[in-house]
Amino acid sequence: MENKNELSFHGNGSKYFGIIIVNMLLMIITLGLYYPWAKSDKLKYLYGEAEFNGSRFAFHGTGKEIFKGFLKLMVFMILIYGIIIAFTFMGKPMLGVLIAYLGIFAIVPLAIHGSLKYRMSRTSWRGIHFGYRGDLKELNKLFFKNLLLTIITFGIYGSWMAMKLRNYTLSNVRFGNVKIRSEAAGSEYFFMNLRGYLLSIITLGIYSFWWINESFEFYVDHLSIDQNEKSTKLKATTTGGGFFKVMVSNFFLVAFTLGFASAWAELRLYRYIFANIKFEGSLDADAIIQTEEDYKDASGDDASDFFDIGII
Predict the structure, then answer these.
(1) DSSP 281
(2) Which residues have C-beta within 8 Å of that of residue 86, sequence separation ≥ 6?
(3) Residue 305: C-alpha distances to residues 45, 62, 102, 116, 143 (Å)
(4) pTM of the model
(5) Distance, CA of 148 to CA of 206 (rounded, Å)
(6) Is residue 290 within 8 Å of 128, Cβ to Cβ?
(7) N or C terminus of the chain with fewer C-beta within 10 Å?
(8) 3-state secondary structure 181-233
(9) Average pLDDT by consecutive 10-residue portion of the chain (312 residues)?
(10) Residue 126: which of 287, 310, 303 has the closest Cα?
């Protein structure tokens, strides 16, 4: 019997709401120190509700691992603020800010690299772990070269920079003996966003839902999965109308319940997205075997959250 290779997302709003409320209360009681454990609890639940071919994914990260990464990030941020304060007292506040910004720019590639390395290593399906094989030195070269071009072009090159980083990082993701490949073009991304921005203004925001759909299709449709020299492409079947229906109804659901239904709204969006990612090819899920190593340093994962860096 042929494997259909289907993704789905389940999730129970009541259970998820309970996790969010308990985490919120514990974070308040501990003055935010419970955040790493709250993040771990949330990821374990969400990953466990995602399913591929009848088997659930799993997140194996722990609050303790994330807490260690959180502490490293806090030390870095204290150092950054310390530099600003020190140079301010020396009468050179702008120099302090400049050095601080350079420090933040320097940590971005490390955050991306560390986040992917940790998050992939701690994610599994049927006991088979994901992995990230990117090289930090290579990523640094790519990041700073494209950052310079983005600055020189007053931000215009940012679309090309974003896609080059995305292609490099995602093409270094492994799922056992299966390789992920991303081939997104910066020019296509730039003109898609330019069109989406202009049409959203003209339509007083109505087109924004179709812009969201175009962005989602762009990300998914440029991904492939390579297995034994055979390629399987991913295909998004979402629509602008579909996103409009889900997101507008979610807005009213959250608004009329004064935010209490946010857990249900979030899961509704996940269900819609997962149900509309299709596989076009001959991926043999039963032939995927373990190849990746364990990695437990969550420093980059915390930094990527702090600086709101999103790759996947």
Answers:
(1) S
(2) 96
(3) 18, 16, 19, 12, 18
(4) 0.86
(5) 35
(6) yes
(7) N
(8) EECCCHHHHHHHHHHHHHHHHHCCCCCHHHHHHHHHHHHHHCEEEEECCEEEE
(9) 79 96 96 93 97 95 88 82 85 83 84 90 93 93 95 96 96 93 97 97 97 98 93 97 97 96 97 97 88 58 46 50
(10) 287
Instruction: Give pLDDT, residue 297.
Output: 55
Residue 306: its pLDDT value, please? 43
Q: What pLDDT was estimated at residue 172?
A: 95
> Which two structure tokens, joined as six digits, stand for 297?
């340093």
**How big is the CA angle at 146 (ends 185 and 98), to the nearest 5 degrees?**
145
Asked if residues 159 and 188 have their Cβ atoms less than 8 Å apart, the reply is: no
Residue 7 pairs in a beta bridge with 52
Strand-pairing partners, residue 235, are 278
Dig out the tokens for 118 from the structure: 């940790």
Strand partners, 174: 131, 179
Count Cβ atoms below 10 Å from residue 147 Cβ, excluding itself: 17
Write down the pLDDT at residue 289. Answer: 86
Long-range contacts, stretch 86-93, CB < 8 angstroms, 24+ apart = none
Q: Give the type of residue at 147.
A: L
Output DSSP code: residue 285: G
The separation between the first and the last C-alpha atoms of the chain, rounded to the nearest angstrom, is 32
Q: What is the pLDDT of residue 299?
A: 53
**Cα separation, 281 vs 278, whole angstroms:** 10
Return the SS3 of 130: strand
- Six token digits for residue 12: 């129970």
Alpha helices in the chain (DSSP H): 13-29, 35-48, 63-89, 93-121, 136-152, 158-170, 186-202, 208-221, 240-256, 262-275, 299-306
